[in-house]
Write a structure and sequence with these properties.
The protein has five helices and ten strands. It has helices spanning about 20-30, 115-120, 140-145, 150-155, 165-180; strands at about 5-10, 55-60, 65-75, 95, 100-105, 125, 135, 160-165, 190, 195-200.
Length: about 220
């Protein structure tokens, strides 16, 4: 497999405008989701077969009492060794050799949903209750194979989402972390050697929703 592509997701630059969330819906022709106010700005509250990307809102206070509010644009990580493929036998899930994108096919309706979802350390796959097909971010495969960046990265106004060839993104991640630690000593990249969607955080992992542990 070629080195393919990766995302840099710099949470320090995210303003939770949710442009990426809307762009994902718009480009992929995904329907809106009926929601209600649950006391948080996070909306909808979770991924679904019709929502492949959402911005998580994490609010709390640190040990010294200082408040924090972190934003986290949740999506499939396009792992280099995808755990969701544990039950795959007939190309229900494929990993594109050129781009590295992990793609769900219509055949996912034949997979055991619980096994597939449990195999993902980030709890990403979701099932359409009617068709039984599984869905998630496609890395905008139709765009990137036509020399276009993913819709989410295209829409980001602050540069929090950057997409490109994996070696270049890894170098950008390294440089960005080195710059951030000057102000945020706990700044680090999450699992850069294991995933193609590489998050840079400035605080403790537990301050972010479903991050390193996944559950």
């Amino acid at each position: 497999m070629s080195e393919g592509y990766s995302f840099l997701v710099d949470t320090s630059k995210c303003t939770a405008c949710r442009g990426c969330q809307i762009a994902c819906k718009q480009w992929n022709g995904l329907p809106g989701t009926q929601t209600k106010n649950e006391g948080t700005y996070e909306n909808p509250l979770d991924l679904s077969a019709d929502t492949w990307k959402i911005v998580r809102f994490s609010e709390g206070s640190s040990k010294d009492g200082a408040p924090f509010w972190h934003f986290f644009s949740e999506q499939c990580r396009h792992c280099l060794s995808p755990g969701c493929m544990a039950e795959v036998e007939n190309d229900e899930i494929v990993q594109d050799e050129k781009t590295g994108a992990v793609l769900f096919t219509p055949k996912t309706s034949k997979l055991n949903y619980k096994v597939t979802r449990d195999g993902c350390p980030y709890d990403i796959p979701r099932q359409d209750p009617k068709t039984k097909r599984l869905f998630k971010c496609t890395m905008c495969f139709d765009r990137i194979t036509n020399d276009m960046v993913p819709a989410c990265a295209k829409s980001c106004p602050t540069g929090a989402l950057v997409f490109g060839e994996r070696p270049k993104i890894l170098e950008m991640v390294k440089d960005r972390v080195q710059d951030l630690v000057k102000k945020y000593p706990k700044a680090k990249a999450i699992n850069p050697e294991d995933v193609r969607v590489i998050y840079i955080i400035t605080g403790e992992p537990q301050q972010y929703w479903k991050l390193a542990a996944g559950r």
